[in-house]
Specification:
Thiol Ester Dehydrase, Chain A; mainly beta; 4 helices; single chain; 10 strands
Length: about 250
């Protein structure tokens, strides 16, 4: 079995926005699907991990796209493990049409947790560190790694929403991609008529659950560049806790 996994998808019309191009959230979901297919086929995926009270948790994700697949187009997601440490592993993605035309790339960092304690656990304890057999360190991923999302404190609360059933995933907390979708909703359709999202970064800090209240704080940090932090109030009461931070870079539409 090859170290790099290659998976083909279709940009379904109901996964596309008003422009006929894929929503970033749906592309993010397919990236995570590719990661799951790749890890499952090689013996360290969620299907096996759940039997031993372990799970992968996404820690950071950066997606940078020059173009999004259009409706009905078939596209390919390649994914590979770039490196592995005791508690974290890095996984990259390349999105293309399968014929040499690259739409964009993704970088991600994952942690393995104990599903009972919710604490990080040793990745190398799985099958005697077999993940090392699948590392690819010579395939380029030419986008910058996600860094710390720095904010000055001049951010403003722009939206508050509750966490509901459709936000929750198999791990019992808000799905990683749901945060992305909620953040992208902070701009209206008129903004997206004139701007294209080129890069999206998200760094996860804490988990949010059913009944929590999420507050979205936004700050413009440069021209067409914004940072957003999400805080939760548990069960709609108590002290706010930061859940994640995002950085978005837009470019003007052609």
């Amino acid at each position: 079995m090859h170290k790099i996994g290659t998976y083909e998808f279709t940009a379904e019309p109901f996964h596309c926005d008003f422009s006929g191009r894929m929503f970033l959230g749906h592309l993010g979901n397919q990236m995570l699907n590719a990661a799951d297919f790749h890890s499952t086929d090689r013996g360290f995926g969620m299907k096996y991990l759940m039997t031993i009270n372990r799970s992968w948790v996404l820690s950071r994700l950066a997606i940078e796209m020059e173009e999004m697949p259009a409706q009905h187009e078939r596209y390919t997601v390649e994914t590979w493990v770039e490196s592995a440490m005791k508690y974290f592993t890095s996984r990259n993605f390349c999105v293309s049409d399968g014929n040499g035309r690259v739409y964009g790339y993704g970088r991600s960092i994952w942690a393995m947790i104990d599903t009972e304690t919710r604490q990080p656990t040793d990745i190398f304890s799985i099958d005697n560190g077999a993940i090392n057999n699948w590392i690819v360190d010579d395939k380029p991923c030419p986008i910058e790694k996600g860094g710390r999302v720095k904010m000055t404190g001049d951010d403003e609360l722009v939206r508050t929403i509750g966490v509901n059933y459709n936000d929750i995933d198999i791990n019992g907390h808000v799905n990683s991609v749901k945060y992305i979708e909620h953040v992208l909703d902070l701009w209206d359709i008129d903004w997206y008529r004139e701007h294209r999202l080129k890069r999206f970064e998200i760094a996860y800090v804490a988990e949010a659950h059913q009944g929590d209240l999420l507050g979205f704080y936004r700050e413009q940090t440069a021209e067409n560049e914004y940072c957003v932090r999400l805080v939760k109030t548990e069960n709609a009461k108590g002290d706010p806790i930061e859940v994640c931070r995002c950085k978005l870079l837009f470019v003007e539409s052609k």
